[in-house]
Amino acid sequence: MKPGAKVAVVGVFDDSFMKLLRSRTSDIVRGKPRTPCDIVFIGAEEMRDLEKLKEAKTWIEPNGAIWVVRPKGGRGPLRDTDLIHAGLAAGLVDNKIASFSESHGAMRFVFRLRDRPK
């Protein structure tokens, strides 16, 4: 993440992550931001949490990203394919997977180039 990025965090309650995030930027909002963000982090534990993608895509800049953070492997009901399908249904595509912590992983969603708002 670029220093100074505008970030929104929804449903992610990891103190070490928040400390690291604050070391990169002070422009952090918990919940829905008032103006477009560079990055949104959404915590997802179950299928209904993925519905947040549809609203969150309106929160990001055209070249912004949404990271969905969820339990790794068999630790939760969500699979990679669930996230991918939810992203597509919201008009977004996945383009990166990362380890978020020992227990959680994250998948990044963005607008396709051709679909980016002007």
Mean pLDDT value: 93
Number of strands: 6
Query: CATH superfamily, please?
Result: Vaccinia Virus protein VP39
CATH topology: Rossmann fold
Number of helices: 3
Percent helix: 10-25%
**Global outline:** globular
How many individual domains? 1
CA-atom Rg in angstroms: 13 Å
Amino-to-carboxy terminus distance: 23 Å
Q: β content, as a range?
A: 25-35%
Question: What CATH architecture do you see?
Answer: 3-Layer(aba) Sandwich
Descriptive overview:
This protein has 118 residues and is an alpha/beta fold. It has a single domain (7-115), classed as Rossmann fold (3-Layer(aba) Sandwich), CATH 3.40.50.150. 21% of the residues lie in helices and 34% in strands. The protein has helices spanning 15-24, 52-56, 80-89; strands at 7-10, 28-30, 37-43, 60-71, 93-99, 104-110. It has a six-stranded mixed beta sheet with strand order 2-1-3-4-6-5. The protein is globular, with a radius of gyration of 13 Å. It starts with 6 loop residues before the first strand and ends in an 8-residue tail after the last strand. The mean pLDDT is 93.
